[in-house]
Write a structure and sequence with these properties.
about 325 residues; mainly alpha; 17 helices; 2 domains; Serine Threonine Protein Phosphatase 5, Tetratricopeptide repeat
């Protein structure tokens, strides 16, 4: 029994000594090592505190530079992203030529990336992550972190495209067809490698069919079918084309779509032939405006009473009644 009490007393004594450590009298190296031990023990808050103490108490030591970045990493692991970003910015500002700057930028991007929310919410973190990763890729294209950043960029693009789609659907269900088309066109022009493209093309078919602009609906349907012949949105678009009595027989040649991919110009060139014929695109926009003016004047008057689309989107009610991405 005496041995048990002795062991317990020893443990308590060690614990008491640990709590009474005089950090002010420790060297920069010892402080750094203790911070590193806390980091390994997942005591992230304490680790960040000690790394910062190295930086403030021993600013001219070799350990101070390392502590700036390690402190940022500790904050990141503790999910204190704002503190991590500030520490990273401080590291880059005072040590712009340090070999660890590529990692610092990657870590900063991850601080935003890990906070990316669902696409129906504000995408500020998405934009910040994309901007930081883009900076890393531009400045250090050959670094080991640039490749990882490129992979993360694809998700940020998907989220931004998803936000445009949500707003476009909101306008569509509210009868504001021109605004909806503008949003879907942003996806088609700026986010061509995302998963949102297929639905964006379908929405173009849907809106032009609603407005009675069947030739434009058929043009977008051809692009959709050429690029996603077995897609679910292509099947939905085919039903629309049948309703409006359009010819949806398979095309003998898909040269326009292939030309679009090779030139990497835009989705519209597959239909209009080339960027030189974009006057037809302008004509389509004018046709939509004219049709909306004729068919949806009451709806437009109702919209003028609203202050902005934010009030409709965030002021209450569902974004898209009965359909958020389902159709």
């Amino acid at each position: 029994m005496r041995k048990i009490y002795t062991a317990i007393f020893g443990i308590l004594l060690i614990g008491g000594c640990a709590s009474d450590i005089d950090y002010d009298s420790m060297s920069a190296e010892d402080l750094y090592n203790m911070a590193y031990e806390n980091l390994g023990a997942t005591k992230y808050a304490k680790a960040a505190e000690l790394f910062e103490k190295v930086e403030t108490d021993h600013p001219y030591s070799q350990w101070a530079v390392k502590s700036k970045l390690m402190g940022a990493f500790a904050y990141y692991k503790d999910e204190k992203y704002d503190e991590a970003v500030m520490a990273i910015d401080r590291f880059i500002k005072y040590h712009p030529s340090n070999k660890d700057v590529p990692y610092a930028l990657y870590l900063k991007g991850m601080c935003y990336y890990d906070q990316i929310s669902a696409s129906e919410k504000d995408q500020g973190d998405t934009a910040n992550a994309a901007e930081t990763f883009s900076q890393l890729i531009a400045l250090f294209p050959d670094s080991e972190y640039a490749k990882n950043a490129m992979g993360k960029m694809s998700l940020t693009e998907d989220y931004k495209a998803g936000q445009e789609m949500i707003i476009g659907r909101y306008y569509l269900h509210d009868g504001n067809y021109l605004s909806a088309l503008n949003r879907f066109n942003v996806v088609l022009e700026n986010y061509q490698t995302t998963i949102q493209i297929e639905e964006a093309l379908y929405r173009e078919v849907e809106i032009y069919a609603i407005l009675g602009l069947n030739s434009y609906a058929q043009g977008y349907y051809k692009i959709l079918k050429n690029n996603y012949p077995e897609g679910k949105w292509t099947a939905k678009a085919a039903k629309i084309m049948q309703k409006i009595g359009a010819d949806i027989k398979p095309e003998k040649a898909a040269a326009p779509a292939e030309e679009t991919k090779e030139k990497k110009t835009s989705w519209f060139s597959g239909w209009f032939g080339s960027d030189e014929n974009t006057a037809e695109a302008a004509e389509a926009a004018e046709a939509v405006e004219a049709t909306v003016a004729e068919q949806a004047a009451p709806a437009e008057e109702t919209k003028e009473e609203k202050t902005s689309w934010f009030s409709g989107l965030f002021g209450g009610g569902s974004l898209v009644k009965g359909e958020e991405g389902s159709e």
